[in-house]
Design brief:
Number of strands: 11
Number of helices: 1
Distance between the termini: 87 Å
Largest sheet: 5 strands, antiparallel
Helix content: 10-25%
Length: about 180
């Protein structure tokens, strides 16, 4: 009987020693960390990088008298710097194109219209001097340098109106298509 007790005491001592050794040892391992950045471009209209959503600003010609003898200019508002939107592309994208459709009038020229169908012609330009128009559904190429923001100019001009326009609210919605 004494021998069994001693053997049991010895076994218990060895077990405690193993636990003590395990606490003194160290184990190491690796944890994989990943992220995937999609290749592409993002439109920024609020001065922040990325984002932009689907509304890229408003081209507002304001409130007008029934007749205006000179063209009325407007810049895109609702952007960080009036007249331009900013496009930021990931590395690997060297250029992108922007095309503007003809708006909801879908004719040979861009028009803002009333709910009753009254129309006023306007155009959108690539430069503040309003000499280079964006053609309807014609892509314009912009080069990207090292992932830096690229300013895309958008300037509007409502054509002169020598006859009295019908009073009302005139609207249109342009769809801009960015491809990279």
């Amino acid at each position: 009987m004494k021998m069994k007790k001693m053997l049991l005491a010895c076994t218990a001592g060895i077990s405690m020693g193993v636990v003590g050794l395990a606490n003194a040892q160290q184990a190491t391992g690796q944890i994989e960390v990943t992220a995937t950045v999609m290749e592409g471009c993002a439109v920024s209209t609020d001065g922040a990088q990325g984002g932009g959503g689907t509304t890229w600003g408003t081209l507002d010609f304001g409130t007008l008298q029934p007749i205006w003898s000179e063209a009325v200019n407007a810049d895109v508002v609702g952007t960080a710097s009036g007249g331009v939107i900013s496009v930021v592309c990931s590395g690997g994208v060297n250029s992108f194109t922007l095309a503007l459709d003809g708006g909801t009038s879908a004719g040979a020229e861009r028009q803002i219209t009333t709910a009753e169908g009254e129309a006023l012609a306007y155009n959108v330009y690539q430069d503040e001097a309003r000499t280079e128009a964006y053609g309807i559904d014609t892509a314009v190429t912009f080069n990207v340098t090292d992932g830096q923001p690229v300013e895309v100019p958008l300037y509007g001009q409502l054509l002169a109106n020598a006859t009295a326009a019908v009073a009302g609210t005139y609207t249109d919605t342009l769809t801009a298509t960015l491809q990279f």
